[in-house]
Amino acid sequence: MDASGILQIVLFVGIVVAITPLLGGYMARVFSGERVALSRALGPLERALYRLCGVRPEQEQHWTAYALSVLTFSLAGVLLLYALLRAQSWLPFNPAGLGSMPPDLAFNTAVSFVTNTNWQAYAGESALSYFSQMAGLTVQNFVSAAAGIAVAVALIRGFARRSARTVGNFYVDLTRTTLYVLLPVCVVGALVLVWQGVPQTLGAYTEATTLEGDRQVIAHGPVASQMMIKHLGTNGGGFFGQNAAHPFENPTPLANLIHMVAIFAIGAGLTNSFGRMVGDVRQGWALLAVMGVLFLAGVAVACWAEAQGNPALAALGLDQPVNMEGKEVRFGIASTILFAVVTTAASCGAVNAMHDSLMPLAGMVPLVNMMLGEVIVGGVGAGLYGMLLFVVMAVFIAGLMVGRTPEYLGKKIEAREIKLAVLAILAPAFGILGLGALSIVLPAGAASATAAGPHGLSEILYAYTSAAANNGSAFAGFAANTPYQNGMLALAMLIGRFLIIVPVLAIAGSVAAKKAVPVSAGTFPTHGGLFVGLLVGVILIVGGLTFFPTLALGPIAEHLLLATGTLF
């Protein structure tokens, strides 16, 4: 990699680290109910929404009520979005006259956006009207992200409180996150993207005549408003089928950088919010350090793999020092690989290149990022509570090693918390390996893989990993829009979202009810380098034991065979 590529990576990491305490401190005040700069302007709207919905903001919920609220709200979102997509042809703001979505695709899309996965088995510009994009997908981009953040905040309160029966009010957390965090940043960010050249219009598609005299339809629409929340909320669903590789979504290198920073901003900031709310900022920095180590390791491996070029082309005597296949030439190797690692380290799923064309080991890095539970910053909210699940595991292992009762932030970690953490960690593995295995052995599932051998396995594995990890990106060669895949991938998305959220909220309720254990000489510190190393090791070992055999049959086998000239 040249100096320019290294500079891009350093600049990105520096910006993320710099904004983390700023955004983290602001969000901590919002979630604690303190007044912020926007309270005067948005406070009346917030209170009006509570009155309209019958919410009493001072009345907090037990974890069971909180979980039921999350599930009920999400179910309503699925039903409403499904109905909107099925009725699209009769709804306004449809200048291209697009028809309604088929039932199986509408169900898949509704589940996808409500679970913050934003998997798309369609091209947005040719399948969705402006109304569906705005009132359907963009709305879910906001509220599904806010729901994930709310769950993380409930877990933070669980560790911060002592002998408490409640973990907050879901509808209050949802409202405050949307009004005070997501909406202001997205308004400003969308205007910046318009300045960079991203369209924002309700006008009809533009028709042009080419030099050859052919008619060309140029799709556009309310793009900028959806782009900002899709990245900030780690949603990933693009307005166009090419996603952030399309010049209307990602017109300049600066826009590309804004997208990447937005993907990491809230996930990184929540680690700082966590530290502030539990009364020890060092705890948040320790979690961010773990995320940083895993992230930079992934960037290094992927950049190295792509810089080697394709040995099959080298065998033909062609000079190909790097692999530019499937990449946007405006951004180059470094920015493309950085985007690929960022979007899969967080559960975003936006892409500025085709992951299917990455070299096998480079394509394995996004897979590993998702298989680890996307705790490397992760989705907004989901990354933090996913990391805290591994923290529970790590302190349990540390407690076994030193012969003491495991503790974290003064809370004893006992059998109930360990069982719940293991359940939440294993749930996505079932969605990936269990449902993925069915798609390999059943003809209806295997038919979606367009390549043979290890690469075909990687296509199926990537699809179910992306769905169960609520990421939404895909190997471009996978044919996803079939009744079988629409149903099975939707099931994987539901497993990856709610079979984690419910155990997480149960842990929040359990630790909130505990008394604080005084710090003693034997207390294992969880803010230093030793704990950072232990936590990194636990994450890698759990991921390795669970997924390495499948990776060995997919991208690793393809890498070894490619060196011998075998292609798929």
The separation of the N and C termini measures 28 Å
Radius of gyration: 23 Å
Q: H/E order of the elements? A: HHHHHHHEEHHHHHHHEEHHHHH
Helical stretch tally:
19
Structural class: mainly alpha
Question: Could you tell me the mean pLDDT?
Answer: 91
**Percentage of residues assigned to helices:** 55-70%
Low-confidence parts, pLDDT < 50 over ≥5 residues? none
Structure commentary:
The protein is mainly α. It has helices at 3-31, 39-53, 63-86, 103-114, 124-127, 130-160, 170-196, 223-232, 253-277, 281-307, 311-315, 332-345, 360-371, 382-402, 415-441, 443-446, 453-468, 483-512, 529-563, and strands at 206-209, 215-218, 407-408, 411-412. The chain is globular, with a radius of gyration of 23 Å. The two termini are 28 Å apart. The model has no long low-confidence stretch (mean pLDDT 91).
Summarize the structure.
65% of the residues lie in helices and 2% in strands. It is built from 19 helices and four strands.
Question: What is the topology?
Answer:
Layout: H1 3-31, H2 39-53, H3 63-86, H4 103-114, H5 124-127, H6 130-160, H7 170-196, E1 206-209, E2 215-218, H8 223-232, H9 253-277, H10 281-307, H11 311-315, H12 332-345, H13 360-371, H14 382-402, E3 407-408, E4 411-412, H15 415-441, H16 443-446, H17 453-468, H18 483-512, H19 529-563
Antiparallel strand pairs: 1-2, 3-4
Helix pairs in contact: 1-9, 1-12, 2-7, 3-4, 3-6, 3-18, 4-18, 6-7, 6-8, 6-18, 7-8, 8-9, 9-10, 9-12, 10-12, 10-13, 10-19, 12-13, 13-17, 13-19, 14-15, 14-19, 15-17, 15-18, 17-18, 17-19
